[in-house]
Amino acid sequence: MIGHELIQMPSVSVVVVDDDARILLVRHAGHHDGWAVPGGAVDVGESPVEAAVREIREEIGVRIGEPRLLDVLGGADYELTYPNGDRVAYVTAVYRAGVAHGAPVPDHEEISELRWFAPDELPGVQLSRFTKALLRATGHLAG
After folding, report:
1. CA atoms within 13 Å, Cβ hemisphere of 1
2. What is the pLDDT of residue 23?
3. Cα 21–Cα 27–Cα 20 angle in degrees, nearest 5
4. What is the pairing mode between strands 39-41 and 6-17?
5. How crowded is residue 133: how many other Cβ atoms within 10 Å of its Cβ?
6. What does residue 44 show for φ and ψ, rounded to 5 degrees?
7. Residues 96, 102, 108, 114: what is their CA dihedral angle, to the nearest 10 degrees?
8. Which helix (H) or strand (E) holds 135?
9. d(Cα 50, Cα 47) in Å, to the nearest integer?
10. 136 by DSSP, 3-state: which?
11. 14 touches 57 (CB < 8 A)
12. Could you say which of 2, 76, 109, 116 would form a disulfide bridge with 22 (CB–CB 3.0 to 4.6 Å)?
């Protein structure tokens, strides 16, 4: 599509948790709107769960255990305008999974930084609007 018309895009988000119930959040390269849950677009011919596994492998270099579907979210809180003016309304399948193999490392292309956060730390963390809405909707963030 040419121009900056709002388009709707299927996507996945993955709430990656460790054995201490901490949540892995990432900072997207080139974006300064806060910490985010990793994820991305569902490719043509790919199922959402396949996209979840692929996105985590590409962005943070780990293999996740069996993803469990938490919710499917969309609406105004999941619309983004990128620095180049592109506008996207995401409909995101939200999964929860643990790390099955590997240690998370940012790919430095899409992800510039990552960090584990305890649930009680989340209210004080600068979260992106998308992530704040997602964590609230899935019961990971109060309020």
Report:
1. 11
2. 98
3. 10
4. antiparallel
5. 17
6. -60, 130
7. 50
8. helix 129-137
9. 5
10. helix
11. no
12. 116
Tokens, residue 45: 């011919």
**7-35 burial: b if 16+ Cβ within 10 Å, else e:** eeebbbbbbbbeeeebbbbbbbeeeeebb
Residues of 37-69 as b/e, b for ≥16 C-beta within 10 angstroms? bbbbebeeeeebbebbbebbeebbebebeebee
What is the distance between the alpha carbons of residues 116 and 99, in angstroms, rounded to a whole number?
12
DSSP 47-108: -HHHHHHHHHHHHH--EE---EEEEEE-SGGGEEE-TTS-EEEEEEEEEEEEEEES-----S
Closest CA to 25 of 66, 60, 49, 58: 60
pTM higher than 0.85 for the full model? yes
Low-confidence ranges of the chain (pLDDT < 50): none
